[in-house]
What does this fold into?
Amino acid sequence: MTDLFDDLPTLDVEWHPHWLSLSAAADALTRIIGEVAWRQDTMGTPGGRVPLPRLTAWQGEPDAVYVYSGIRNLPQPWTPTVAQLKSAAEAICATRFNSVLINRYRSGTDSMGWHADREPELGFHPVIASVSLGAARTFDLRHNKSGVVQSYSLKGGSLLVMKGDTQSDWRHRIPKEPRVMGERINLTFRWVTPRPG
Ligand SMILES: O=C(O)CCC(=O)C(=O)O
It folds into this structure.
């Protein structure tokens, strides 16, 4: 017998909307803005290379090298506040992370397009812990086969853990929201297969 719900895609995420208190999240935002060395990377387009619509940083263990969109990320050392968040994320996820991609959205006109974190160095069924600080932004997940979209409002202090088939079966994005004035920082803690820089 076919169950009516058999075809609905299941999304393997854990959602902790109030993981950090409001004051802890605000404090972490201020400290991370100050302690991280921010980069303005570029991406290739048919018209040539253009700046990414956000600032980024990659921190981690020295051998946690990560290549995405043609950008080879050599890790910067952990900074104090990022290291604290990493330890807390490891405790709740019961796993280890050796790196983090940090994205800084200066306002609602900064964004990230549809993609999945499927690089070989992330391995099969990666656990990725996404910590948000600052202004709330919409996070869309779209199922590859059905096109079903599931959205979250990633408020400051929230934690979304993506697991299982989330990267193989879904894509995700942060759409532009021009009415959002505030700044937002997102940290995605990951385990990448170590390799020499
Ligand atoms: O800013 C976010 O919440 C999403 C970040 C993201 O998609 C990524 O790091 O792959």
Observations:
- The chain has a mean pLDDT of 94.
